[in-house]
Amino acid sequence: MALNAVLNGHGFTLAARYLCIEQLKSGQLVMPVNIPHPNVVKRYFVYDANSAKIARLNIFTTWITAEMNFTH
User: Fold this and answer.
1) In terms of DSSP bridges, do strands 29-30 and 12-15 run parallel, antiparallel, or are they unpaired?
2) Domain membership flag for residue 72
3) How far apart are CA 63 and CA 10, in angstroms?
4) SS3 for the chain, per residue?
5) pLDDT at 69
6) Does residue 16 form part of some domain?
7) Does the residue 62 lie in any domain?
8) 45 forms bridges with which residues in the sheet?
9) Phi and psi for 41 in degrees, rounded to 5?
10) Is residue 21 in a domain?
11) Contact by Cβ (8 Å): 22, 31
């Protein structure tokens, strides 16, 4: 459900790669940083590549990356 919302331009989600690998390969979704969570099933930050809110998503990505002390 969260992935469908993202694919319809509504924000972002943390997703298991296996659930969205085809959309990532096609460019439909973007994974701006490759920071998997240490869980057994990794989740990735992804968003709709065609979102009207790309500027906001980029600001959020920059902020969350800085907060996590990573660079992208």
Assistant:
1) unpaired
2) no
3) 19
4) CHHHHHHCCCCEEEECHHHHHHHHHHCCEECCCCCCCCCCCCCEEEEECCCCCHHHHHHHHHHHHHHCCCCC
5) 74
6) yes
7) yes
8) 14
9) -100, 110
10) yes
11) no
CB atoms within 10 A of CB 48: 21
Q: Taking the CA of residue 19 as centre, how many other CA atoms within 13 Å lie in the half-sphere pointing to its CB?
A: 16
What are the pLDDT digits (tens) for 3-58? 999 999 888 888 888 889 999 999 999 988 877 666 666 677 888 888 888 899 89
Tell me how many domains the chain contains: 1
Q: Average pLDDT, stretch 65-69?
A: 80
Give which of 63, 28, 64, 59 is closest to 46, Cα–Cα: 28
Domain that holds residue 44: 2-67
Hunting for tokens 């331009």 — which residue is that?
A: 9
| Residue 11 phi, psi dihedral angles, 5° rounding | 75, -140
